[in-house]
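Reagents: none. Just compute today. SCP domain-containing protein.
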Amino acid sequence: MTLLAAFLVLAAVLQQTTGQPSGFAALSTDKPDQRKEIVDKHNALRRKVTPTARDMLKMEWNAAAAQNAKKWANKCTLSHSPNSAKPGCGENLYMSSAVKSWSQAIQKWYDEGKNFTHGIGPNKPGAVIGHYTQVVWAKSYRIGCAVAYCPQQNYKFYYVCHYCPALHFRGNNEDTMKTPYKSGKSCGVCPKACDNKLCSK
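Predicted 3D structure written out:
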């Protein structure tokens, strides 16, 4: 048996043994590198908003939010959770038929920004912007995420992130939704310090 054939057989055996496709286990947010990737990706995107933000808080990992995200992801409902499943927190979902990195999933949410103009809102009726506005919601600074493998679904990979405090937590105010952060000089109104365009608590 050639080395390549042996590798392919081993890969097939491993997939049958674990019941999960290759690459899925590496996405687990039990792994510090995945938690770091999620936090770093969010902060990188929050730093690059246009117009720049005066009050954008720096994201940090939150174990409680991650645990709630994991509980919901494992249900494989492929729908948003009730408020009771994420007290005081917002939620972004991403579903895929193939394994994607956390950075790819988060970028997809952020890319909805092409449908959004700061201070105005959606560029056209029905435009999907909710994932973007949650990613750049200035007051959300705690995040926890998880991913589940849902083999019975068409979209088998189910990514869930919880953001605290939530985008909608203080009421679904239309004007507030148009301005997920205060525009102006970076860190212009930070409560404490500034860390490379982001406010720290």
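The first helix runs from residue 3 to 18.
Action item: order primers for follow-up constructs.
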